[in-house]
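Re: Re: ligand-bound prediction request (bumping)

Still looking for help on this. To restate: I need the protein modeled with zinc ion bound, output as structure tokens. Inputs repeated here so nobody has to scroll up.
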Amino acid sequence: MTICLYHRDTATEVNDFTLEHIIPDPLGGRLAPDWLKLRNVCKQCNNNIGHFVDASFTHSWFVAQLLHKISHRINSNTPHASIPLNPLGLSGHRPSYMENDETCEAWLGPHGELVFWIRPTDERFVTYMGGNPRTTRTTQSRAYFFPNTQSENDIEKMLNSFRDALPKKLVKKVIFGQWGNVAPEAYGFSEPDALDRSRLEFFNSRISVNMTDQITIPIGQEFDWRFLAKLAIGIGYTTYGDHYLSSPYYQSLKNGLWHWHGVESPRIHGMSFFTPSDIANDSSNLFTQSTGIRNAVTILIKPQGTSLAVLLNIDKERFWVVQASDFVGLDPQIAFSKYGEGLAVILCKEKSLMCEVGLPDLLAHFLGLKRQHIISQIEA
Ligand SMILES: [Zn+2]
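Reply:
Sorry for the wait, this slipped through. Here it is.
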């Protein structure tokens, strides 16, 4: 096979295939079993889809918040352990010398500390927490850290969390105030210059009034559409191999994968964040809600009636559903023999734990009839 699974033009032959994770890394994709990794995606699609499709989902405020919450819960009781900052949204504050192509993003630290990050903005990436991931790696930006002076909490944890914040970004970090004997440079902070000093004063005078004043959450109504199409294509292909490529529904999904804002919506069955479920025979909301695992990303693949459904659940709190196949032109028995009544892949990136479990065993676990050891470890 020399045709890229994602390529918009199927006639294009490509040879530079790369490893593609059906589940992106922020959701635990590296832990996923090999059958959820593909080798027939070209380098160009892999890069573009990682940047515009996977990241649009994982960097959206909704998903970033959920992932942050899991990480915080797992690491918060470990003394001195660094915790990812919580993305709050965009701040309306505009301190001195902000360029027109810059924005101010606000983050919250483990004990209520505040971070204001002045970074380049890009209209294509407005809904991404952290902006355009490529630009912020190569363009200098500045972040201002405000420790919570009311807090008696673990100072080392705060500094470690600040140090590790905004990884892989080209960012000058400046902290407000003095912290005992702490040498700021040991935690990745730089000496403030005149511009930094004026901005520190600016923010300090405002956060003392209201910590999270003027925060807006950038919302992209379609942030998950293309990602769900990608997830469905990957699962469809891993189920049916090359036969999948001749099914009409694969073409609909591919239109969805390359969907562009403002163009007519693709005909994909499922349920995204802002649109209700329309999937055929979706048994019940109870079913979709009850199959998630706390602290984990759960992908449940379930043949049901006339469709192969994929359910994505994060932290037992939010879920998405997409149809990977309507079985037109494909043998439903293949899906039933692979997944039985349903197969769940449970990924916990924070604990580096993964398990695959059939739906009956998962339900038995939920009911307390037969506990699954790894799931218990993940949930703990
Ligand atoms: Zn391609």
